[in-house]
Amino acid sequence: MENKKKLTSEKNRKLVVVGDGMCGKTCLLYAFVYDTFDPDHVPTIFDTYATTIQIDDERMENKKKLTSEKNRKLVVVGDGMCGKTCLLYAFVYDTFDPDHVPTIFDTYATTIQIDDERITLALFDTAGQEDYDILRPLSYNDTNIVLICFSINHPVSARNVIEKWNPEVRHFCRLCPIILVGCKKDLRIDPQIISKLKQDSEKQVTTDVGRQIAAQIKADAYMECSAKTREGIQELFVHAARLSLKKSNRKKHSKCALY
Hints:
The chain has helices at 5-8, 25-34, 63-66, 84-93, 155-173, 191-199, 207-216, 233-246, 248-252; strands at residues 70-78, 107-114, 117-125, 145-151, 178-183, 221-224. It is α/β, with parallel strands linked by helices. It has a single domain (69-252), classed as Rossmann fold, CATH 3.40.50. Strands 2-3-1-4-5-6 form a 6-stranded mixed sheet, sandwiched between helices. The two termini are 37 Å apart.
């Protein structure tokens, strides 16, 4: 697998295209990224693409090379403050930044090597607060795999996996593969958190409980990780990439839809 650190040495730039509806914005981007003209492509409200090119001595690969890669869209959902943003940030930038403030919908892109397949992962961070329940489904269109996250030190976020997140994902993404992710694993043995939870007649979410929830929602896998220590981060996204490839045929018959 290609080390993700390689990407941090590249220069990342965000480009936004605006203009009237039907003026040609989507076809413009589609032609550049995929080197083809597709007048029938129907964009979502917010489409996102990622590509790499070479400018002078700055590393950027020829876009045509990317057309031979496999592109997969991964969406991360879960309660607000459960660790979603730090999880993605730790994977893409190999660092822990607890002060990073995400936008309502942050998007990252990274490339990894799985066996003989080079995969570009488009990573979509979503807002878990109820205020964004109406907007969040806009992220689900054409998703290849979903990570439903909860915080190991916050049992309510685990219960919400069953009551809120799994029903929402199953509704909009139907047969899309799901990995249940227990975030903030490093806090499981934190004495202050254990004491506080005990005062509230609660306790940390154990690995066994996490597995039980995964079985209950019929997730394809259950994994735990820590963005702070980076434990389990690499393994999680490698498994997600493999699962997105393995389940690609299933997704062809069941696209995530907004209704």
